[in-house]
Amino acid sequence: MADDPTAPTARTAPTLTDGTVTLRAHRPDDAQGSFEQCQDPLSQAWTTVPVPYTHEMAVGFVTEMMPQGWVDDREWGFAVEHEGQYAGTVSLRNEGDGRAEIAYGSHPRVRGTGAMERALRLLLRWGFEEQGLQTVIWWANRGNWASRRLAWRVGFSFDGTVRQWLPQRGELLDAWVGTLHRDQSPGPRTVWLDCPTLAGDGVHLRPMDERDVPRIVEACSDPRTLEWLSFLYPQPFTEESGRGVVSASTELRASGKGVTWAVTGDDDVMSGWLGFFGLRPGVVAELGYWAHPAARGRGLTTRAAALALGHARDRLGLQHVRARIAVGNAASQHVVETLGFEHTGVERLGADMADGSRVDLAIYDLAL
Fold it and tell me: Contact at 8 Å (CB) between 347 and 324?
């Protein structure tokens, strides 16, 4: 009996390429690359891959699960190929009515190469132009900065956090969410500030990370820190609180509102925190800082602030920098006065103190 020419034909992934990265249908020989990807700690931490993940599961993923998504018109998944090797998977999960959810995961070997950004640009262009999509939504576990930055680079908004939304191995985790519409340009819509490593005069500024958490906890539990900054660091200040300081530093940059650093000496041990917040691009930001108890009295904060002010002038293009310091905090006032800040006024009862009282804030300004 002849085939019915009107019978529906199972769909398969088309081949898309920009000359550097290729999106294509999954093949059986992708199983090894998929298996390697799913052994990676970052893949296990941020995705729903089963743990442990076997080679048999990888075979099923590339030969059954991904092809079936096309047959069902449920998920349009592509293998990413870069320099002749499997580099990961990207997909659009069909939500109907011109909507889809984007998903992506990379093999460790291509991280930092730009391959996945290229892959997502190909995928989104195909989805909007060939599939008629109107809106694509992005979800990620809260804290997955690599996913968020990649989504930002290809044009997704950041629309906030949804509590206990994404399932992962029996838990509901907090989720980040954003969207991209077909009439929006495929590029960043906001500023994501860099946090470069700076060095000079025996001091170093670098991005904060997990290794700094113990030192942050020590500093933010110290009575002298709390005497002047208790409104910033409620007690008890735990390891989770310390990780929150690290995360807040990244959030500040991701939102374009400021940049903060770990202050270190030549030993790379965190000796303080310093940075700019409340940033108005090209105009002004506020300077803030504290020193770890073991680093006080060495002039480290003053030298670190001088480095940061050069960055504010030369890289951030700021015209002036402000500082607000509790009246009575002579050590902190000495830092900005040494750097040439001018005392311009007082904010009455501007700060909460550890004992429940409020104190005035001295206002300083420096033209750059």
Answer: yes
